[in-house]
C-alpha cells in the first residue's frame, strides 16, 4: 500500500531500481503492478479533481465559473492547464526521487498516467503544434544530468506523435527558488529569464514536472506570446496547492 513509501530503506531502493523488480509496484513492492504501480497505490494518487480551469490550482470545491481568484484578476497568457495530480504525498516523493536522485522507475508510472490523461483531453483541447519543455539552465542540467521537463515532453511526444523542441527557449541565467519569494520578488526574479531562439508556432504546449507558484509558466507564456504564439496550454505532472 501507499504508506510503504515512507519507510523505504536504502536497500529497498536498490531493489526498486533493479530489473528484477520491474514487475513490482515501486511504492509498496506488491506484485502484479502495471506501469510500476499496483492498483491500490494507483487509486491513492492525489487527483487534481477540483481545480482552476486556467492554471489548475487545486480548489477546495468546484467554483461556479471554474477559475481561481488570481486568474480572474490577472489572466495569464495561456488558456488552459492539464495537470492530473496535486503535488502531495506520494506524488511529491515520487517526483523527488526521480528528479533529485535519478531514480527513473518512480517516473515511469507517472508518465504512463500522464500520457493517458493528456490523450483523453486532447480531443477537447486541440493538439498543439509543438511541445516546449520548460528550459533548465545549463549548469543545473549539468549537475542533475537531465532535464525532467524534457523527459516528460519526449515521453508524451512519442506516445501521441507530437514534436518536441527543447531548443526554442533558453534560460539566460540561474535564479533563486521561486517558492521562497513573495509575488513582487518572484516577478523581479523572472524578469528577462527566458529568451526565444527561433520562430514560434501559433499553437504550443509548455511542459513541466511541477507548477508551484505559477510565476514561471506565466513568464514563459508571456515571452512566447510576444514571439508569436496564439494558443498556449500548460501540461505538468502535478500542481502545488495554494
TrEMBL record:
Entry's transmembrane regions: none
Designated name of the protein: ComF family protein
Family: Belongs to the ComF/GntX family.
InterPro entries per the UniProt record, alphabetical: ComF/GntX_DNA_util-trans (IPR051910), PRTase-like (IPR029057), PRTase_dom (IPR000836)
Amino acid at each position: 500500500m501507499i504508506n510503504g513509501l515512507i519507510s523505504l530503506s536504502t536497500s529497498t531502493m536498490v531493489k526498486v531500481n533493479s530489473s528484477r523488480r520491474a514487475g513490482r509496484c515501486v511504492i509498496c513492492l506488491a506484485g502484479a503492478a502495471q506501469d510500476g504501480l499496483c492498483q491500490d497505490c494507483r487509486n491513492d494518487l492525489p487527483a487534481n479533481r477540483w481545480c482552476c480551469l486556467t492554471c489548475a490550482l487545486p480548489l477546495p470545491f468546484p467554483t461556479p465559473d471554474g477559475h481561481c481568484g488570481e486568474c480572474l484578476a490577472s489572466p495569464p497568457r495561456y488558456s488552459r492547464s492539464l495537470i492530473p495530480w496535486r503535488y502531495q504525498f506520494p506524488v511529491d516523493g515520487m517526483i523527488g526521487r526521480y528528479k533529485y536522485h535519478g531514480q527513473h522507475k518512480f517516473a515511469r508510472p507517472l508518465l504512463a498516467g500522464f500520457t493517458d490523461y493528456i490523450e483523453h483531453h486532447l480531443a477537447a483541447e486541440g493538439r498543439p503544434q509543438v511541445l516546449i519543455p520548460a528550459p533548465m539552465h545549463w549548469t543545473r542540467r549539468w549537475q542533475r544530468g537531465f532535464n525532467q521537463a524534457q523527459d516528460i515532453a519526449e515521453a508524451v511526444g512519442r506516445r501521441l506523435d507530437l514534436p518536441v523542441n527543447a531548443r526554442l527557449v533558453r534560460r539566460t541565467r540561474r535564479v533563486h527558488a521561486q517558492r521562497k519569494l513573495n509575488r513582487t520578488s518572484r516577478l523581479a526574479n523572472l524578469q528577462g529569464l527566458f529568451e526565444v531562439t527561433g520562430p514560434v508556432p501559433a499553437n504550443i504546449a509548455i511542459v513541466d514536472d511541477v507548477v508551484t507558484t505559477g510565476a514561471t509558466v506565466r513568464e514563459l507564456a508571456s515571452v512566447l506570446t510576444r514571439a508569436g504564439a496564439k494558443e498556449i496550454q500548460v501540461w505538468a505532472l502535478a500542481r502545488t496547492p495554494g
